[in-house]
């Protein structure tokens, strides 16, 4: 009975995706955030030098365009940083889910080894399955909350950049969503 506990207690619909692909995406977006942030810093320095060198009504329009470009770079860096935080956060949730589920299976196996008959085994499996389902649901809520944080922190900037640029920014992260079961970021295997 102990060898099947994991398969009966943690059913396939409860198994979270691997965290590693999300961590790869997080690293990618963090690198973009750093690169765009550096471009923004360079642009601000160059803008400051140009503004000191040329002051006239005609130049002011050009300076404003450059300030807007620097602001757009800042928004992009913030979006990429928020995307990295999102992917790292969801990867952490997936790792927590895997650890919690493994702990449930270990504890259930201890009890199953001491069960006196099949009825006790069935009761143990049912109780631990319910507990595992509750843990998984709670962790799904945590992954969904991460998507909400991303939407609140970066969603406005994505919309502002899209509106200002007339289309998505280069390598613009897609707003994540969740469906039934474990949340999977948009565009990743297993998403809706």
**Secondary structure category:** mainly alpha
In DSSP terms (H or I, runs of 4 or more residues), the helix count works out at 4
State which percent range the strand residues make up: under 5%
Shape call: rod-shaped
Topology:
Blueprint: H1 5-9, H2 20-53, H3 57-114, H4 118-165
Helix pairs in contact: 2-3, 3-4
Describe the structure.
By secondary structure, the chain is mostly helical. It is built from four helices and no strands. The longest helix has 58 residues, at 57-114. Mean pLDDT is 82; it is low at 175-186.
Produce a short descriptive summary.
The protein is mostly helical. The protein is built from 4 helices and no strands.
Task: Identify the notable features of this structure and list them briefly.
192 residues, mainly alpha, 4 helices
């Amino acid at each position: 009975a102990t060898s099947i506990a994991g398969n009966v207690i943690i059913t396939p619909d409860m198994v979270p995706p691997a965290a590693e692909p999300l961590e790869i995406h997080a690293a990618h977006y963090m690198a973009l955030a750093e690169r765009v942030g550096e471009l923004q810093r360079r642009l601000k320095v160059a803008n400051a030098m140009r503004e000191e060198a040329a002051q006239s009504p005609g130049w002011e329009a050009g300076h404003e365009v450059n300030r807007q470009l620097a602001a757009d770079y800042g928004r992009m860096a913030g979006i990429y940083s928020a995307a990295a935080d999102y992917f790292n956060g969801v990867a952490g949730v997936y790792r927590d889910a895997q650890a919690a589920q493994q702990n449930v299976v270990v504890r259930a196996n201890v009890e199953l080894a001491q069960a006196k008959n099949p009825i006790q085994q069935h009761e143990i499996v049912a109780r631990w399955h319910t507990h595992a389902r509750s843990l998984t649901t709670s962790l799904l809520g945590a992954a969904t909350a991460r998507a909400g944080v991303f939407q609140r922190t970066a969603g406005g900037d994505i919309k502002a950049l899209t509106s200002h640029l007339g289309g998505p920014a280069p390598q613009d992260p897609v707003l994540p969503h969740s469906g039934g079961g474990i949340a999977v970021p948009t565009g990743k295997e297993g998403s809706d």
